[in-house]
Design brief:
By secondary structure, the protein is an alpha+beta fold. It has two domains: 214 residues, no CATH class; 329 residues, Alpha/alpha barrel (Glycosyltransferase). The protein is built from 19 helices and 28 strands. The strands form six sheets. Strands 4, 5, 6, 7, 8, 9, 10, 11, 12, 15, 16, 17 and 18 form a 13-stranded mixed sheet that branches. Strand 21 and strand 22 form a beta hairpin. The longest helix is centred in the middle third of the chain and has 20 residues. The two termini are 20 Å apart. InterPro entries: 6-hairpin_glycosidase_sf, Glutaminase_GtaA, GtaA_central, GtaA_N.
Amino acid sequence: MGAFHLASALAMAALPALSSAGTVSLPSYPLAVKSPYLSTWLPGNQTADVASGQPEFWAGQSVNWPILARVAGKTYTLFGVPQGVSGAVAATTTGVSFTSTHTLFTLTAGAANITLDFFSPVYPGPEHYAKQSLPYSYLTVSAAADDATDIQIFSGIDHTWTAQNGTAQLNYTSTGTAGFFWFYNPDQYYYSEDSDMATYGSILYGTTSEDGVTYACNSPETVYNTFSTTGALADVDVCQGNQLAALTKDLGSVTQGNVTFAVGFQRDLAINYVGNAQTGYHRSNPDWHLIPDAIEAFLGDYENALTASGPFDEAIRTRSENVSSDWGGQYADIIEASVRQTFASFEITVPLDDLTASPQIFLKEISSDGNIQTVDVMYQTWPVFVSLNPEYLKLYLEPVLEYSATGAWPHPWVIHDLGTHYPNATGHADGNAEQMPLFECASLFILLQAYQKYTNDTSFAAKYTSLLVGWADYLNENSLYPASQLISVDAIPAQANQTGLAVQSAIGLQAAGIILGNSTYSDTADSIATTLYEDALGLDGDTVDESTHFTYYYGAADTWNVLFPSYSDVLLELETFNSSAWSLQSEWYSQQMQAGGLPFAGPENYTAYGMDINWGLCDWNLLVAATSSADVQAVIVNTTHTFLTNGLNAIPFGTKYYVKGDEVGVWIGNKARPTVGTNFALLALDQGYWGYSY
């Protein structure tokens, strides 16, 4: 999307102000996307008529969020009313646009032009962890008319935002400057999910307390009818949990005006970390400790949030465009579509019994098995943090290292995750977790070295020296001839002697050598690299000169895969492998491109894969693009952009899709995942840490 001055656009609330926003279509548009449980989207195939659009939770469950306007006494449905409203007219959708933090729909409703701005702030800077941890998003409805016109705005939500099936209590609460509806179940079962939706916590929906605001809860038909008839509601504040909770604002007789709502999903018991409750880091601020204080502060900070989003959105757009004069625009679209999704995949927390402690983050492995703190998922996400704030790597690694240092994990390699199901980071004292011994060890050292390189902080790793030495020893002894085991792409069965796993292990061992100041590890890493590349153990020929590519398995000359470990070797300047190794692989990629992009592996029908590899993984592809030729970069960015915008899919940004066959461009699996953070790979390599605080 083209960059534009959002504050001006909202102030004027007129179509010309949005004219520079571009028209790229997304498979699904982020609305309120702030945490693994506050993640509401509108499928792209519904944006031609957003008045009848049905918002969804990222996993596909319908979420009700109706928005109406009454213009000169006539009611119009603006958004989220697929069944319509008796006597109302559907407003006409005239535009759809987005930035990294905003999704905007423009409509006409009689004499009024309406803008709906769904705004989920992103504050990546280290001084803003508390703000970033607030699990709230904004909706601003702006209206403009050529002549003064009576305009009232209506919006509401219901119990579909949580998996409590209407059992929560619902009431209206007011503070000094805010009023909000509060869904809360006193009999809730903590730390539980149903189909990825939380079954506990508080859903909030509110606006600032000012003249012209009314509220009510009742059946949708009742509140719709009251609003259509009077332009206001009856201030009903005691409700049943399955009713629609609605707010209205009378803008008056105006040529322009707006109202801002806030929606939140707050769980004060956010994470179960080995039996110790973690709560949102914002609660470390005494002024935001209680839910009424938090939503009041969030609403009161809207103008500051809006102002801050402008430079951030502008930086995301222009810096991405500047990576290439040829395909920078396409790349910027990809990056803009990745930001909210990445930052909504984790929560920033603090121990409930020590709100003065340092923050940590807990990451959900979204849309696969729901693990918490999966090491290889962070490895598949990390370039975004190189660009925006490398300290996030420390905040993620701390719980993994802290738990491992207790000795509860019984194996000599890095744990795969801290729990089978988010939000329970209860560890695996029985050793029964998905096992990726070499991959997780190597990934952890790479992440730790990335943190050290971009922050110059060696004290963090020093706290865990004895633990790290054990894992480095494991890599040192087991990397050259990997035993049968999985890698991050665990859809492909475990098998011994995977070339890419040995490459990843060598690079991780090189990082370990730097972190621990131990040349033995570095020497072994160099030796493995020499054996794999110069001695051609990992190549398809007997010598480098006779070879065209790295193999997937030793001795299987026709096999190959996307060799994503190359990126960390180059970005972190480890130089484990000669750069000619990556040039060789880049040339091979250029010959393997299919109609929809680069497959993950080949040949397609190789039996050891357990499936036909007619699919690609766009996150891994963008990672290898960064270490490939300009031509390969152009093709990967182009095909990823085509997959993102082709109109064939209706899910939050997915990563696995068909690259050949009758269904080219059709999504297969993985959606709404944090791994789109890897899309920053080209940015991170080109520009490093931006060094700004947003």
